[in-house]
Amino acid sequence: MTETSEKEIYQIIWLIRRLFRTLAQKSSQHLEAFGISVADRAVLEFLYPDKKLSVPEIAERYKISRQHVQVTVNGLLELGLVETQENPRHKRSAHIILNDKGRALFGTVLKKDEEAIKQLFSHLDENDIQITRNTLQTLLNKLD
User: Fold this and answer.
1) Annotated domain spans of the chain
2) Dihedral sign for Cα atoms in the order 109, 113, 116, 119
3) Cα 76–81–86 angle (5° rounding)?
4) pLDDT in tens, 124-133
5) Are 92 and 71 in contact (CB under 8 A)?
6) pTM score of the predicted model
7) Are 62 and 46 in contact (CB under 8 A)?
8) Contacting residues for 84 by C-beta, under 8 A, at least 6 apart
């Protein structure tokens, strides 16, 4: 790899980091109107529309600690957006499910997300979108 391409690759990584932080900030601002956090949204998304997952299962898919997911789930329980249900495979680790209020709220969040995403990508042509997706997926596969 040449010095020029190393600098270009570093710039790509820097842009991805900056894009991630900007998207996280915009997402956080967007979710304030719904009274939920980015972490809340992630857990709600895993459960939407009718999935039953335990805290350890959510943590595994989210690739974060079980304790962090438990704190988030506790907050969602307090907000009345999720409920617990007996887990026949594991007595001490209940399933977490969306209730009607949580499902309705997340459905609204998804609609608003779709509008924002369409606006964000409106200036890109299909080929650019496909190349970007393929490149990011290849990098992610390499890291996994």
Assistant:
1) 1-32, 33-143
2) negative
3) 85
4) 999 999 999 9
5) no
6) 0.85
7) yes
8) 77, 94, 95, 96, 97
